[in-house]
């Protein structure tokens, strides 16, 4: 009898997405620590998620390497030269101040200066502090306690500290600073960088409060010292639609426009019969953005000046305690430009020292891809017309995790109580945008209507939805299909959501002429089903609309559908007449130049792989080869890039085909059409509904894109090269050792015409 999985482990496994892993640690009776690292991979046999153990056996992969591949922000942060230099200057200033303090002490001969580095990452800040003390207070001893809760990050930090000859100075402690015993003796200086795009999401407030309570001297110095959050009212481009509104909902009124009078009812995305149960409430949707790019392209329009809404002081125990229970207040904005307020742009400034401030204001710093601005949607997804000289007031609040916009109104500030209504977040903002896309909905709707009309059984055709959330099943039933089954294989939560949307939101199954249609939601892995579990017959139409586990990884999404359909073929669950929607997909590619990509996603440090003189070779060798794995770039559509080739086809896949399991290798060659530096290849998916003559692309706004970087320094294509220069890509998929789902070899070659020698 198998042991029951602990609830916390089961919850972690269910919450994990593709390419993420869960570490399970235990200690045996001898005190030896045993670790199992489970990685969520694509199951090439059955589709869906396959958990593999990275700690041994035939699937051995370095967990540390895999960890950094999932933490996409690490290299952009370490490649942020402005950030690094500002922290170095602030730390040096703090050490100079401590030098004055130490020299004034009566008993300073045997003085030890102590530093606390909270969330040390690779150890950079702690090493900068150690070096500064060694160079400034040469006759004094320095001790640094560097705390890091992620085991893989701590492993890299330990080796990096050793490589820089600082192991005798820096003591790395694995754990959470709030859960470790109090420091004794307490620290004179605390450095940390517990920051994310929204400022508070990594827990800087509770960490700083705890440090002052248990780890720091009363007169210790804290870096950073202060932070301020700014807000600015923005609108969408003049004459354009409010595209921000599509990031929550979905909106039943908008979706209803796809359905005319000939339908009994439109498709509804609601959790209750009143149609008011949103899957994603707008009040808690914050979208990271590169606002400078959006302003330049007029996707966003600035309607007001920026106004500070919250200030945080970390410099003392008393100051850090302000706002411990959260704060809320109202702020008035004076409109400068006519438009419609559709969102609030938030960013922050960080005072590292008295005259050293890092700002996330759009355009203030050179491009970086780790700290973004945040677009906060207005409560209820509302919008408000604004004229110059209008006063618009907003109510803001914050807790230890985030800053929120609670209310908006015209006129002067009027204090009111916080709205205590709950909110729902059953889907992501990206999925909401997808479900609000009527162009995409119309493609599926038209293809499904065509398939039903062309099938001998008409609307009685047996339809099987093998994706997440029952979207295709509900669409089919609303279009009049009377034999529909949705298989929910991902989680119990999604199965319940699918059932509520079907039964409560759409009133399924529908009745017609006194008979009730068949509509079932089956929570099961597809490979555990047989034909008898369905209708006792083969499905006539199979629909898939993947998004959940593989969200943001479009190639893996499409391969997942492909492997599931192939599994059904292998298990004799489909016939040669079964129709697939989509019927096929194509892997497309394009070579680009992008200095922004290159600056963020390359090996960190200078040519010697040093950051401010500190060796980071170990990190680069562990996870810095971006030519060997794909990056999923969420904000790719906001990057500056130049296409050096036309779009070209890598390979195409027919759903339901029974291809071998041992892998496929394909090749593609494309000639360069424009000059520029060859920085990366971008891959995306085109889904085809061949019989309906329609397709859907994942290449546009706002979808993440898969990017494979090319070696640095890269090749520059000159005007004289355009006649002969080509990119050659060997693409492999299937049959690779997990966690790899695919791989590719990319080279830039010279195409030699017949009769011409290569040397010419």
UniProtKB/TrEMBL annotation:
Which GO BP terms, alphabetically? methylation
Q: Which top EC class applies here?
A: transferase
Question: Gene3D superfamilies annotated for this entry?
Answer: Hnrnp arginine n-methyltransferase1, Vaccinia Virus protein VP39
Reply yes or no: does the keyword Lipid biosynthesis apply. no
Q: List residues of the PRMT5 arginine-N-methyltransferase domain.
A: 80-222
Query: Which species is this UniProt entry from?
Result: Fistulifera solaris (Oleaginous diatom)
Write one Gene Ontology MF term: histone methyltransferase activity
Protein name per UniProt = Type III protein arginine methyltransferase
> What PANTHER family does UniProt report for this protein, alphabetically?
PROTEIN ARGININE N-METHYLTRANSFERASE, PROTEIN ARGININE N-METHYLTRANSFERASE 7
């Amino acid at each position: 009898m198998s042991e029951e999985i602990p609830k916390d482990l089961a919850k972690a496994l269910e919450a994990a997405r593709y390419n993420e892993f869960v570490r399970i640690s235990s200690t045996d009776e001898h005190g030896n620590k045993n670790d199992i690292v489970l990685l969520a991979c694509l199951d090439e046999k059955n589709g869906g998620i396959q958990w593999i153990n990275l700690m041994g056996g035939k699937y051995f992969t370095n967990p540390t390497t895999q960890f950094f591949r999932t933490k996409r922000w690490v290299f952009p942060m370490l490649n942020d030269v402005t950030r690094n230099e500002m922290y170095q200057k602030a730390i040096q200033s703090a050490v100079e101040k401590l030098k004055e303090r130490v020299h004034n002490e009566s008993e300073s001969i045997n003085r030890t200066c102590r530093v606390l580095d909270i969330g040390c990452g690779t150890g950079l800040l702690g090493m900068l502090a150690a070096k500064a003390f060694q160079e400034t207070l040469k006759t004094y001893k320095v001790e640094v306690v560097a705390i890091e809760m992620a085991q893989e990050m701590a492993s890299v930090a330990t080796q990096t500290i050793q490589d820089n000859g600082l192991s005798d100075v820096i003591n790395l402690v694995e754990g959470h600073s709030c859960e470790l015993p109090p420091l004794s003796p307490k620290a004179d200086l605390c450095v940390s960088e517990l920051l994310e795009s929204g400022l508070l999401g990594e827990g800087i407030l509770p960490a700083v409060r705890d440090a002052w309570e248990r780890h720091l001297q009363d007169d210790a110095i804290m870096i950073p010292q202060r932070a301020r959050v700014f807000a600015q009212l923005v609108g969408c481009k003049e004459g354009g639609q409010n595209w921000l509104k599509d990031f929550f909902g979905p909106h039943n009124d908008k979706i209803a426009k796809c359905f005319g009078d000939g339908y009994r009812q439109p498709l509804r995305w609601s959790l209750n019969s009143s149609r008011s149960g949103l899957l994603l409430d707008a009040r808690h949707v914050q979208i990271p953005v590169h606002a400078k790019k959006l302003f330049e392209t007029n996707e966003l329009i600035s309607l007001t000046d920026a106004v500070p809404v919250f200030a945080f002081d970390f410099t003392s125990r008393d100051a850090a305690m302000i706002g411990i229970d959260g704060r809320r207040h109202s702020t008035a904005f004076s409109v400068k430009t006519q438009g419609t307020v559709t969102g609030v742009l938030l960013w922050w400034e960080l005072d590292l020292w008295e005259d050293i401030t890092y700002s996330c204001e759009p355009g203030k710093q050179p491009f970086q891809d780790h700290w973004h601005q945040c677009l906060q949607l207005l409560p209820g997804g509302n919008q408000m017309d604004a004229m110059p000289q209008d006063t618009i007031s907003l109510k803001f609040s914050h807790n230890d995790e985030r800053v929120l916009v609670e209310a908006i109104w015209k006129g002067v500030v009027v204090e009111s109580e916080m709205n205590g209504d709950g909110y729902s977040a059953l889907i992501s903002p990206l999925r909401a945008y997808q479900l609000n896309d009527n162009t995409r909905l119309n493609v599926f709707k038209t293809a499904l209507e065509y398939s039903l009309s062309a099938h001998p059984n008409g609307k009685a055709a047996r339809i099987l939805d093998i994706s997440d959330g029952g979207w295709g099943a509900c669409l089919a039933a609303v279009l009049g299909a009377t034999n529909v089954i949705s298989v929910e294989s991902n989680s119990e939560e999604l199965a319940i959501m699918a059932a509520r949307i079907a039964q409560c939101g759409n009133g399924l199954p529908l009745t017609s002429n006194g008979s009730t249609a068949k509509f079932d939601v089956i929570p099961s892995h597809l490979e555990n089903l047989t034909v008898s579990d369905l209708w006792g017959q083969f499905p006539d139409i199979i629909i898939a609309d993947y998004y959940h586990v593989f969200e943001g990884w479009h190639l893996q999404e499409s391969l997942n559908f492909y492997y599931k359909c192939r599994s059904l073929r292998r298990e004799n669950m489909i016939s040669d007449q079964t129709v697939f929607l989509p019927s096929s997909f194509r892997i497309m590619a394009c070579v680009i130049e992008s200095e922004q990509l290159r600056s963020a996603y390359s090996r960190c440090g200078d040519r010697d792989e040093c950051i401010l003189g500190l060796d980071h070779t170990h990190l680069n060798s562990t996870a810095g080869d971006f030519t060997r794995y794909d990056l999923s770039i969420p904000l790719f559509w906001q990057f500056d890039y130049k296409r050096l080739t036309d779009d070209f086809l890598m390979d195409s896949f027919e759903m339901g085909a029974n291809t071998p399991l041992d892998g496929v290798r394909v090749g593609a060659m494309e000639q360069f059409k424009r000059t520029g530096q060859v920085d990366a290849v971008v891959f995306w998916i085109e889904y085809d509904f061949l019989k309906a003559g329609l397709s859907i692309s994942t290449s546009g706004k706002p979808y993440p894109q898969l990017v494979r970087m090319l070696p640095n320094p890269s090749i520059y294509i000159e005007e004289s090269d355009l006649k002969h220069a080509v990119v050659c890509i060997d693409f492999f998929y299937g049959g690779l050792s997990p966690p790899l789902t695919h791989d590719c070899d990319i080279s830039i070659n010279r195409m030699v015409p017949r009769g011409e020698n290569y040397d010419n």
